[in-house]
Design brief:
Structural class: alpha/beta
Strand content: 5-15%
Number of helices: 9
Strand order of the largest sheet: 1-4-3-5-2-8
Shape: elongated
Number of domains: 2
Largest sheet: 6 strands, mixed
Number of strands: 8
Distance between the termini: 88 Å
Order of helices and strands: HHEHEHEEEEEHEHHHH
Helix content: 40-55%
Length: 289
């Protein structure tokens, strides 16, 4: 009986050893598969990155991003409505321009409604002025009133090749005959001003991308007042003087910087691939490597 027991125990021990070996082999096979898969993924990722970089090197960056950075009136990020004033003399009587830059205006009236301002400019007998669009100071919505490449009567002949954008102002105050805005509810006036300012930053950032202009380059973005000081625009003080009267601290130097920062942080930073972001950032705002 003892010999039989020993024999059975020997068989069981051998079976256990075989089972352990089988499990070890299976685990090793699984581990090897995981390692092989990881290596394969790494190789595939490196290959795709190399192909992507080769594509960037071999193609014009403008072509690559033509669709991604297209500026259209139905882009939800621009809060923009195409509202061409086809009955206005400005629309009917002016030709195309080669855009040199962008001029920022404020309307010089205690009025917030961008659509109502556009409607006033859009009548068939309104021959006093024209502009490429109005930004509502309660909603931030931009009413795009003329094609970008059409001349607008916004600041005299010297500014005819500039895109002109009007910011509506606040109705929480009034103007006197000396064209000074006097806020009655300063917090409400500042809130309207913040809304329209932030919308203008976003709009001008998209325009800089559209025309591949550096927002910090001299003469690309100017106010009506700066245009007058340069001798290219009629003698107005907007929007600089309006901002001073609202005492909100905005300046044109700050505006240009905010446009540049918006391009970097809100547009370029949201692109998918890091190499593309770096190249596009340098390409658009002409930073040194």
């Amino acid at each position: 009986m003892s010999e039989k027991k020993d024999s059975k125990l020997s068989v069981l021990k051998k079976g256990n050893k075989i089972s352990v070996l089988l499990i070890a082999v299976i685990l090793a096979t699984v581990a090897a598969s995981v390692i092989i898969g990881a290596v394969g993924n790494a190789v595939d990722g490196a290959r795709k990155k190399r192909e992507q970089e080769e594509y960037i090197a071999g193609n014009d960056i403008r072509d690559m991003f033509a669709k991604k950075l297209t500026f259209t009136d139905d882009d939800p990020d621009t809060d923009s409505i195409q509202y061409f004033l086809t009955d206005s003399p400005n629309y009917k009587e002016t030709g195309r321009i080669e855009v040199k830059g962008f001029m920022l205006h404020s309307i010089g009236a205690a009025f917030t409604n961008g659509k109502a301002m556009a409607d006033q400019f859009g009548t068939s007998d309104f021959r006093y002025a024209g502009v490429h669009g109005f930004i509502d100071s309660e909603t931030g919505v931009f009413y795009h009133t003329l094609p970008w490449d059409q001349q607008a009567w916004h600041a005299g002949d010297g500014a005819s090749d500039y895109i002109g954008i009007e910011m509506c102002e606040s109705d929480a105050g009034y103007y006197t005959d000396d064209y000074v805005f006097h806020p009655e509810d300063i917090e409400k006036a500042r809130e309207h001003t913040r809304i329209v300012y932030e919308a203008a930053v976003k709009l001008f950032a998209k325009l800089c991308l559209k025309y591949e202009f550096d927002p910090m380059k001299d003469g690309v973005i100017v106010s009506h007042k700066e245009g007058a000081n340069r001798g290219i625009a009629t003698r107005h003080g907007d929007p600089d003087e309006y901002w001073e009267n609202v005492k909100i601290g905005y300046t044109m130097d700050g505006f240009r910087k905010d446009v540049k920062d918006y391009i970097n942080t809100k547009i370029v930073a949201n692109l998918k691939y890091t190499p593309i972001k770096q190249i596009l950032k340098k390409y658009i705002i002409h930073e040194k490597a």
